Amino acid sequence: MSNNRIFEDYLEKIKLFQKYNKHYYDLNNPLVDDQEFDKLKSEIIKLEKKNKFLNSTNSPSNSVGFKPSKVFKKVKHSVPMLSLGNAFTEDDLINFEKKILNFLNKGNDFRIIYSAEPKIDGISASLIYRNGKFVTGLSRGDGKEGEDITENLKTIKDIPHLIKSKNFPREIDIRGEVFIQNSDFEKLKNKFANPRNAASGSLRQKDPKETKKIPLKFIAYTFGHEKGLKAVSQNEYLENLKEWGFKTNPLNKTLEKIENLMTNYQEIEKKRGEIDFDIDGIVYKVNEFNLQKRLGNVANAPRWAIAHKFSANSGISKINDIEIQIGRTGALTPVAKINPVNIGGVVVSNATLHNEEEINRKDIRVNDTVLIERAGDVIPHVVSVDLKMRNKDSKKFNFPLKCPSCGSKTIKDFNFTTKKEDAVRRCSSEGYECKKMSIEKIKHFVSKEAFNIEGFGKKIVENFWNLNLVKLPPDIFKLDFKKIESLDGWGKQSVANLRYSINLRKKISFEKFIYALGIRHIGLENAKIIAKNLKSLKNFLALSKKSNFDDLMNIDGIGETQINSIKNFFNNETNLKVLKNLNELLEVKDVEKPKVGGPLSNKTFMFTGKLSNMSRSEAKSLIEQNSGSIVSNVTKKLDYLIIGEKPTNRKVDAAKNLGVKILDQSSWLKMLK
Ligand code: IVH
User: Fold this and answer.
1) Residue 253: in which H helix or E strand, if any?
2) 258, 280, 309 - which closes a domain
3) 0.70 cut: is pTM over it?
4) Which of 90, 16, 1, 92 is nearest to 50 (CA)?
């Protein structure tokens, strides 16, 4: 089934689920019996499990407990179990704090202390203790009324049945989260969509013996009503909980200032994959109970707490237009311009449609309602179309057969390996004849891994191109700086800086030079191989006079595709002119014979974190110049781990465990010649 169909089917089921819920819950008039209801629920969950892109706030996996089971007695919560407002960005947090300060009539210098607690994605429960004895346990239910699941909760080892501590209140409703650790969920994953569902399902078994079979955990974090609680703040209360025998989240922290909340958030989000339970954000609570009391609640959430959510990864939007972008190698990439949608705290207004084939396969059209996914740093993409939302007069998208930038024919290459046409359509002009392609080529030429001309950003390339200052790479080294000085936004100092960074790169390694030319299929690795084998620019230029490329043919790692691409490059007059001019303007260093016996010989190195004033590739080449070698894993064979800014903790820990030497950048540089 196509993703479109799956998505459609899914939305239909969600709608039905909402309808059943409404009739049961709000209208008190169930449309179907429990079995039918459960069947629908499990169908939705099955779909979500099979198709990771499906996700809806109305899904049963996001609204566990909405429908209280009739198996359990319903009990009113003495204090409602509230939910939390959400924050996604730093601005949301600043706003949250502002409102608190306003409410308390305090100025900006008033320091609010927060309890920052990773938000476990499980099922909340309320445990009522009288005179130290666990008497009643309730699920959240709808927040006002829960189900009596005492016997099931009693099977959880983390929940004490009797507490004898002196400072334990006469009566208290301890609240926290029931959840399953990811490692335990592994064994149950055929039965449930996710750990949260597994916890909910197990907790609400009719027979507590069934619950007992599942390794449920409990972490405590708040309370409802209490009589005799001595703590005056959340962090004191969390300490109390530990004394009384409860588990609390080991990653809880007491913090002040939004900037520190942000750092903590980022650190924990990074660690998310390593933690053995699902967390979906950080809960911040005003630490002082008397301030909490003063702040009170808005609707069904407290004014003194907020959930800072981690990025969710999908959202629904509408395509306003489909734009075609042209890349350095002429590839035509369709991009959907969509109504801005907040996906996990980032406002997304562009989504890639990859290529012509993808548009055809998913039948994506302008004005379509689509599901957008954003994962990590990857460019957001369109997952599927909601066909039900499509207008009757909607028209199929016609992919341009001419390059929108230069009007040349667009072509699809035949791939000899797959024996198929490529999925990507390209502009057939060979480079600098197409405006968009040539701008992209120049951006590539000055980029970090190529000439690395500092301060020569993408906007400047576009600007200089439009002003006829830089049409071809050699123009960069013949710039009229006087003219630039008179341009809007430029001054003496900025021009001096630009001139300095350009001059710095007039001397360049042969491999970087080859890479910077932006020949299709010649990335950094291939450029390196070619440079190593041809040794000098002179030998490279000589290729232009050859009818065969025997010298390249025998190079290990260079195949037919690359050779054809290089041939095409040399068949173009503009490319030859560019090469000739660059040769006159620059000093391209010959490849030196690999030094043996350099100061790093027989030593292996690995980097983690950002280095200062140096790219990774420069650092790697320094190692190689000094006869050292680079490895990509922390193993016993690694001699040195070099750490820059914000290193990956996992790598540092692994290195420590294996006794690998850890160096900072300056100590490492001292080892070099
Ligand atoms: S405090 C009024 N603390 O988040 C305060 N909740 O969206 C509400 N949760 O239903 C609860 N970790 O299931 C609180 N450290 C934590 C939490 C936490 C997870 C869940 C809980 C609650 C939901 C609110």
Assistant:
1) strand 253-256
2) 309
3) no
4) 1
Indicate if ligand 1 lies below 6 Å from the C-beta of 84. Answer: yes
Ligand 1 centroid from CA 254, angstroms: 16
441 is a catalytic site residue: no
pLDDT digits (tens, 9 = 90+) for 627-639: 888 887 898 889 9
In a domain, 1, yes or no: no
Structure-block tokens of residue 80: 């409602």
Ligand 1 contact via 222 beta carbon (within 6 Å): yes
CA dist list (Å): 183 to 45, 194, 201: 20, 12, 17
| Residue whose CA is at the smallest distance from ligand 1 atom 2 | 82
Residues 189 and 289 in one domain: yes
525 and 558 co-located in one domain: yes
Instruction: Specify the CATH number for the domain of residue 642.
Output: 3.40.50.10190
pLDDT in tens, 381-394: 998 898 988 999 99
Q: How many angstroms separate the alpha carbon of residue 585 from the centre of ligand 1?
A: 65
In angstroms, what is the span from residue 222 Cα to ligand 1's centroid?
8
Q: Kindly name the residue from 13, 41, 67, 119 that is annotated as catalytic.
A: 119
CATH of the domain at 275: 3.30.470.30
- The domain boundary residue, chosen from 259, 292, 309: 309
Average pLDDT value for residue range 646-668: 93
Spacing, Cα 119 to ligand 1 middle (Å) = 7
The residue-averaged pLDDT of 309-328 equals 88
Check if 83 has its Cβ closer than 6 Å to any atom of ligand 1.
yes
Looking at the structure, do residues 511 and 650 belong to the same domain, yes or no?
Answer: no
> DSSP string of 394-457?
--PPPPPSB-TTT-PBEE--EETTTTEE-S--EE-S-STTSHHHHHHHHHHHHSTTTT--TT--
| Ligand 1 close to Cβ of residue 305 (< 6 A) | yes
Residues 168 and 262 in one domain: yes
Ligand 1 pocket check for 237: Cβ under 6 Å: no
- Find out whether 283 and 117 touch, Cβ atoms under 8 Å: yes
